[in-house]
Amino acid sequence: TENVRRIAQADVAKAHKYAIERFAEDMLPVKDALEKTLEAGNVSLDSLRAGAELTLKALQTAFERAKVVELNPEGQKFDPNLHQALFEVPTKDHPPGTVVQEMQSGFAIGDRCLRPAMVGVAKAQG
User: Fold this and answer.
1) Residues pairing with 71 in the sheet
2) C-alpha to C-alpha distances, 73 to 32, 111, 124, nearest whole angstrom
3) For residue 17, pLDDT beyond 80
């Protein structure tokens, strides 16, 4: 029984180690792209923009593989577990407590919030 427990613990430790390793491997192309951008000499704004778009795409691919999802809170009911209210907006167009504006994206992995979305929340106008 003790051996089975040790083997199970070792398997869990390996799974964590390799999950982190895979994410790190997925991040290497992002680092390479950023370094190439910084090394670039006199390049056009269009070239820089195209490079930034490719770098962002590589980052999004790494996030997808790691199951990191971007929160899209606009129109949702404010949730303090997923959102951080920065300001209130008096409005008649949205029910009170509804997210009406996102200032900074939030991210989650599974059911765990990595970073709350920074938002503006509707309040009753009156």
Assistant:
1) 106
2) 32, 15, 19
3) no
